[in-house]
Specification:
The protein is 71% helix and 6% strand. The chain contains five helices and two strands. Helix 2 runs antiparallel to helix 5 (120-153). It starts with a helix and ends with a helix.
Length: 154
């Protein structure tokens, strides 16, 4: 089986998993720990860069993280909290599913286009950095929103 097909299937499964995890998490109160931990867990993927196959240039790092940060704007704008009693909940957004699906389609399209020019390992590293840049930026924004609400409760 072709690596492009395998990675596309894995990315699709990850997107579907993320949708289910996020909708399940919305039923429980948000905490600082729940906001911070996902990007920390994801950061272990940086071990891929130990292998020369996945090495990327500084320009590619800046480009990938920058695109990820731009993509995070959609997630930041649709991530809001509500207060119920003394608990703070993440409001589930119907746009989240659309945004994650759109980002997946864009990722697949870009992989098909850029994959002709950039080696598979490099491209994998770039997409990892894009996702990390997006998630870290999104989670920092969520943490700031959460802390503001938490302070207003005190």
């Amino acid at each position: 089986m072709n690596w492009a097909i395998v990675t596309t299937i894995v990315a699709s499964l990850m997107a579907v998993t993320m949708i289910f995890v996020r909708s399940k998490a919305a039923k429980k109160p948000a905490t600082v720990k729940k906001i911070i931990l996902p990007p920390l867990f994801m950061s272990t993927g940086a071990l891929m860069f130990v292998f020369p196959t996945f090495h990327v240039s500084l320009y590619q790092v800046i480009e990938s993280v920058g695109v990820g940060m731009i993509c995070s704007i959609f997630l930041i704008r649709t991530s809001n909290f509500e207060v119920e009693g003394k608990d703070i909940y993440l409001i589930p957004s119907k746009a989240f599913i659309v945004i994650i699906s759109a980002l997946l389609v864009i990722r697949i399209g870009m992989k098909l286009i850029i994959g002709q020019v950039i080696a598979f390992g490099e491209l994998s590293g770039m997409f990892y950095l894009l996702a990390l840049g997006m998630i870290v930026t999104w989670r920092i924004a969520m943490l700031v929103k959460f802390k503001k609400i938490e302070q207003s409760l005190d």
